[in-house]
Amino acid sequence: MRVVLPCLLAALIVCCGDPQGFTCTDDLRVVTVTVTDTAGQPLENLSTRTTVRATRVALPRDSTNPGPVIGHYPVVDDHHGDLLKPGDNILDFAAWDAFHFTTATFVVASGSCHVSKREGPDTIVAAQSRDASRVQTDSAVYTLKREFSSWRAYPVAIYRNTTSAPVYFAPCRGWWVRRTGADSTRRLDSNIAWACGGGRPTDSIAPGEAMIVRVVLSSNDSPHRQPPLQLEWLIGWMRVELRLCREYEAESDDCDLLPQAERESNAFLVRF
Questions:
Q1: Is 176 exposed, middle or buried (0-12, 13-18, 19+ CB in 10 A)?
Q2: Residue 64: which pLDDT band, with cuts at 50, 70 and 90?
Q3: What total number of domains does the chain contain?
């Protein structure tokens, strides 16, 4: 627990300069989360990964020391201060094993002294994986939401490198969404434009590591659009495909893609 000391008696109290106004101490502050199964039982020996959304940097951690309590996992701690910007940081957390998978988003403040959680759950539930797909999404069902002049859904996909060699990810145009199953031939209207161009190398995913990708399914619903958007164009069964490459490329546009079965997600339902 943090001790908040107001800087009222300058002669007696010296504040450390933490922008959040907290006193510096020598203890290590850790933001943690409890992971349970659908029956509420804590899950142990999960693999975990925390990624800084703004930089896509994965925070290093000792995977052999998940925490002092079964089901209790670190999200970020004071050792990661150099990888965070001052102020609030959005962190994407994932936990999984061969049978379970879950993700959560945290807002964590990084000051000159310690990290602290601003937003995020204390406990998350890991559902059983839906199929044997290499890429798993954080839910089997997503609901479209109205945002400004668009309808959107945000699947989160995680790829786990279970091979003995590195796998590479092309960050520009790094994913797409397609229909699947009985909905394969239906129209899909998603008009996300990629902000990055060429000139970026591929990212490496080492054996045993995982990568989290936040996907956006979106379509503009401007009153001037012709023909008008039909929500049927955005709902149904879908999969995410990632641009996973066999080899490192200095120019990610030259990616030699892995077979589709090794880079596609489980099927998920988008509904209104």
A1: middle
A2: very low
A3: 2
| Out of 28-42, 47-61, 175-189, least confident range | 47-61
CB 95 within 8 A of CB 126: yes
Long-range contacts of 15-19 (CB under 8 A, 24+ apart): 16/112, 16/113, 17/112, 17/113, 18/111, 18/112, 18/113, 18/114, 19/86, 19/87, 19/111, 19/112
- Each as own residue / partner, the long-range contacts of residues 252-259 (CB below 8 Å, 24 or more positions apart, any chain) are 252/170, 252/171, 252/172, 252/198, 252/200, 252/201, 252/202, 253/170, 253/172, 253/198, 255/168, 255/170, 255/202, 258/167
Within this chain, do residues 149 and 264 fall inside the same structural domain, yes or no?
A: yes
- Domain shared by 107 and 171, yes or no: no
| pLDDT score, position 104 | 87
- Please, what is the Cα angle at 28 between 126 and 213, to 5 degrees? 35
- pTM, entire model: 0.59
pLDDT in tens, 86-120: 999 999 888 877 677 788 899 999 977 889 999 99
**Between residues 98 and 155, the one the model is more confident about:** 155
Q: Are residues 54 and 139 in the same domain?
A: no
